[in-house]
UniProtKB/TrEMBL annotation, chain A:
Keyword Lipid metabolism in record: no
Superkingdom of source: Bacteria
Record's signal peptide: none
GO cellular component: membrane protein complex
Gene3D superfamilies with a match to the protein in the record: P-loop containing nucleotide triphosphate hydrolases
Gene Ontology MF terms in the entry: ATP binding; ATP hydrolysis activity; transmembrane transporter activity
Pfam family membership, one: ABC_tran
Family indicated by similarity: Belongs to the ABC transporter superfamily.
Domain ABC transporter: 2-230
Assigned keywords, A-Z: ATP-binding, Nucleotide-binding, Transport
The protein's name in its UniProt record: Acetoin utilization transport system ATP-binding protein
Keyword presence, Coiled coil: no
Lineage: Bacteria, Bacillati, Bacillota, Bacilli, Bacillales
Automatic annotation (TrEMBL), chain B:
Keyword line: Cell membrane, Membrane, Transmembrane, Transmembrane helix
UniProt family annotation: Belongs to the ABC-4 integral membrane protein family.
One Pfam family from the record: MacB_PCD
Organism of derivation: Ureibacillus xyleni
GO CC terms of this entry: plasma membrane
Organism domain of life: Bacteria
Matches recorded under InterPro entries: ABC3_permease_C (IPR003838), MacB_PCD (IPR025857), Macrolide_Exporter_MacB (IPR050250)
Start and end residues of each MacB-like periplasmic core domain: 23-226
Predominant location category: membrane
Topological category with respect to the lipid bilayer: Multi-pass membrane protein
PANTHER family, A to Z: ABC TRANSPORTER PERMEASE YTRF (PTHR30572:SF4), MEMBRANE COMPONENT OF TRANSPORTER-RELATED (PTHR30572)
Protein name, per record: Acetoin utilization transport system permease protein
Record field: transmembrane: 21-45, 278-303, 340-364, 384-408
Amino acid sequence: MIKVDSLKHTFTIGKKDKENRIEVLKGINFNIQSKEIVAIVGKSGSGKSTLLQIIAGFMKPESGSILINNTEIAHFSEKESAAFRMNHFGFIFQNFQLLPGQTVFENIELPLKLKGIGHQVRQKKVQEILKKVGLVEVEDHYPNELSGGQQQRVAIARAMITNPPIILADEPTGSLDSQTEQEILLLIQQLNKNEEITFVIITHDEEVASIANRKLRMSDGFLVGGTQYAF
Amino acid sequence: MLFKDQILFVLQHMKKNKLRVTMTVLATMIGCSFLIVLASVGFGIQETMRNEILNQEQITQIELWGNETLTEEDKKFIEEIEHVNVVLKKESINSTIHSKLEGREGDSNGTFIDISAQKKLPSNLSEGRLPETTNEIVVGFHYAQSLLNETDKAEIERKSKAAQEEGGYYDGADEGYKGEILNKKVELQFFDETAEQYGEPISFTIVGILKEPTYDWYIDSSIVFHDELRNAYPALITSPTTLIYVDSLEHVMPVLDELKEKKYQVYSQVEQLEELDLFFLIFKLGLLFIGTIAILIASIGIFNTMTMAVTERTREIGVLKAIGASPNLIQRLFLMESTFIGLLGTILAIGVSYIISFLANAILPHIVSYALSDENIMNHDITFSMIPLSLVIIAGSISILVAIFSGWRPARKATKIQVIHALRQEL
């Protein structure tokens, strides 16, 4: 499903005449199968977030290849990346990234709106997903009226409303207390099992990583451990 | 994203920033109203002057100049031009004609007119008929007023002095012959170019009185003679002119062009109308240019509002991009917002401009009349401000285009926002 080959990326920082190049990814290779939960773990600065951002198409890699369902996405234009994300990825962020001016319902239906789906279908789909994540009673609330756990549930609902095959999660429980964290992790496991969604979770928390079928460990721009399938 | 959803999305954001959007709409409205009202003055004055020209009876008339009288051959050629109704030959007598009636005297200008051609034209008489014989005449509307005796002359002098002292003038309307002048016999004396009497005084019968002149200030005491009388006075110095009457206003220019092509010296007030239109076109363009500056100033407001909106919504733009919004969509949403601001400001401006225009036309004549101490201004049909549809379309287009253009750069900026940087922003 996801095949990453020889992925390299370097950040250039500082002023033009005093540029400093930092190699963040130094040739990453891995393969993720459909319906897996894969955790990419590593310390801060190991390059795991950069890896997720490149897979998501938020930035282009310096070199290497990323195949998603046999489509090479590493060199997509911004427009192509956006269209690809809309159809293939859902996102869960550490700080939820909900739109504060929109209600729970509106936040969840946003990806459907972007896809150009009509009002009636949206209503039906959002109602279904609200039931799945247990947010029916707060559909008219604004994000700031919800607890952290509820906000992350909204983010998860938004991520899966378009039935994407892959959900990319960047520290999905990083802003939650341990009890809420457990609830969210359980929800992820249920969705993986029931909806057959592939999850790629970036985390530094071993407990979060424990729900994954596989762990890919990163350190200093390299994959240093974990189970990698042979290409 | 469906177009309807895009509109709702944009309106939702505008609603959230109600105060800022309202102030920007107001700025746009003021700029656009200024443009429309300013240009409407040009349209208004042009309309007044056009009406002034069009209201003149001679609008379908072409004047043919020349030192010599038109030959029969020329007359025939002109008469055969399509849309020419009548070719009227006139000869204005260069010297004055002295009138005597019941102890009163007066001097007038005289004209020989082709009576057979004149008969084909709509009547220009207020009373009576056209001359049928050489000893019949038609006189101007104020002819009787010009016939004075010594008492009248003294009275006019006295009244004129009094009027001058008050800063005005007296036109002698209260003096002159007061009886019925139609069918009266009047004795006329012609003069030659050296002001010597030419021929003996002859008695003529007044058979018609011309209509009152269009202009209030014009005193018409002229005398119209039958053209056949011209042969009896071969030594009279006259200025011949020919008037060509065209069937309608729209055919004046083609006839005029054809005559010019044949090297005739011609003039029509329609030409004056064209010159007037050209002058006012340039005048109105100048006003539009000045007015556009006001809109450009308002556009700075739109630019600021949109830049603020992009800055404030950076994180939101990041989220939208992350979940699949294309750069084009982001740009479109912001452009739509600036367009709505421009559109709303323009619609309000059109309404406000019509109100200002109406008030200007209702109030300004009173102010001008008061300032100039001239009550006659109130009687004139003066348009101070006029807003035709074309002005609404031009000003509206300028305003909306400027609004879109103002939103362009902020919208482009929004598309350039990096998802990663945007998502890192705090609320």
